[in-house]
Specification:
Elements lengths: L8 E13 L2 E7 L15 E8 L2 E8 L11 E5 L5 H9 L5 E5 L15 E8 L3 H14 L4 E8 L8 H11 L3 E7 L15 H11 L5 E8 L1 H13 L7 E5 L23 E8 L2 E8 L5 H7 L17 E6 L2 E3 L7 H5 L2 E3 L3 E3 L3 E5 L4
Parallel strand pairs: 7-8, 7-10, 8-9, 10-11, 12-18
Antiparallel strand pairs: 1-2, 1-6, 2-5, 3-4, 3-6, 12-13, 14-16, 14-18, 15-17
Helix pairs in contact: 4-5
Length: about 375
């Protein structure tokens, strides 16, 4: 889903901080009336925070866990990760009343809803991967009253299940329209299917046992890369159409198994210095970029342009822009859909020129 809205940072006040688990907090923000349109979001999207740690600017993306149907709520979940400078500072020090820079919502981990349809939504999540799934789940159940939702949720143990009580409350509200199955690596369930990690074989078994109805289905996968690869293989094994599978990768990719082919170049023979025009906030900037040098995003940042970015690892789509002229090539892509790539969109953190002249438009996000 492409949008012409340009992402910008805005300073928001922290409304509340809730300790969800020993390692995870839920953060609510106050969005003033003049910014509510800017922070309107779709279920499954994320925001990027900008903060300073030991004098260094850090940018980190966190999924929204509230539903867009709850207009007064705008919340994210932050889980402390080992050696994570940003997450550690947020979890340990963030208090109500503090102000923090937040970029307007972005992301493709969503799907259009229709109140007249009867579908079966199926989600696989692990750890903090539940965050966007919770937003999707709440929105689906309220928007499509004829549809149902099944969640397979992997964690280490019961105490680390993020949103455990909230899921139980939603289950009470919606009854058999919501099914939640916990899979624990330290679990002692008599049914071994619910113990251990979500492997490809385990995902196949879960699908066969709990997702065998004839309803149209939409699948969502969010969590670490290996789980994403395992579940994707299971769905492929079951003959699921790739267009029905939505993926959000949490963390930095560690292998190339899930890497998407992503090139706009018919030839990589060009190895010189390209003239690159950057269109940003309605203004044009002429830059030089080496074919085998830094990515377009880094060239733009070095030139002093305030281009949007977050992960620089091809995982989020914060730096997404559209190629209007010329040829480019991406090193990696874990965020853009095949349709977006075919339509000329790129992740500029991974993009290199493959022709003498290239025009890239950030305003066509």
């Amino acid at each position: 889903m492409s949008s012409t809205r340009m992402a910008h940072f805005h300073t928001l006040s922290v409304a509340d901080v809730h300790q969800e688990t020993p390692e995870c907090i839920v953060v609510g923000f106050d969005v003033p009336p003049e910014l509510r349109k800017e922070f309107a979001f779709q279920h499954g999207q994320y925001v990027t925070l900008k903060l300073t740690v030991d004098g260094e600017e850090l940018r980190r993306s966190y999924s929204i866990c509230s539903s867009p149907l709850d207009q007064e709520q705008f919340r994210i979940a932050v889980k402390k990760v080992p050696h994570g400078r940003a997450s550690t500072q947020l979890v340990d020090k963030l208090k109500p009343g503090m102000r923090i820079e937040v970029m307007s919502p972005m992301g493709n981990f969503t799907t259009a809803l229709d109140s007249s349809r009867a579908r079966h939504f199926v989600a696989f999540a692990a750890g903090s991967g539940i965050t966007p799934i919770l937003s999707i789940l709440k929105t689906v159940l309220r928007t499509e009253p004829k549809s149902r939702f099944t969640l397979f949720y992997g964690n280490t143990d019961v105490d680390r299940i993020i949103f455990r009580r909230r899921l139980e409350e939603i289950k009470v509200l919606h009854g058999d329209r919501l099914a939640v199955h916990h899979i624990l690596t330290k679990g002692i369930d008599e049914d071994r299917l619910f113990n251990g990690r979500i492997t490809t074989e385990k995902a196949i078994q879960l699908l066969k046992r709990f997702v065998s109805d004839p309803l149209d289905k939409e699948f969502f996968i969010c969590g670490p890369e290996q789980m994403m690869v395992n579940v994707s293989e299971a769905l492929e094994n079951q003959g699921v159409d790739k267009k029905r599978i939505h993926i959000e990768l949490f963390g930095t990719p560690v292998s190339t198994e899930a890497k998407k082919e992503a090139t706009h170049a018919t030839s990589t023979a060009f190895s010189g210095v390209a003239d690159v025009k950057i269109i940003l906030d309605g203004r044009e900037h002429e830059l030089k970029a080496k074919a085998n040098g830094d990515a377009v995003l880094d060239v733009a940042l070095d030139a002093g342009l305030d281009v949007p970015f977050a992960c620089k690892g091809a995982v989020c789509c914060t730096c997404k822009a559209r190629v209007l002229e010329g040829q480019v090539e991406m090193e990696m892509n874990y965020a853009l859909t095949d349709e977006e790539v075919a339509d000329g969109y790129v992740l500029t953190c991974q993009t290199h020129p493959r022709s003498p002249r290239v025009v890239i438009d950030y305003d066509q996000h």
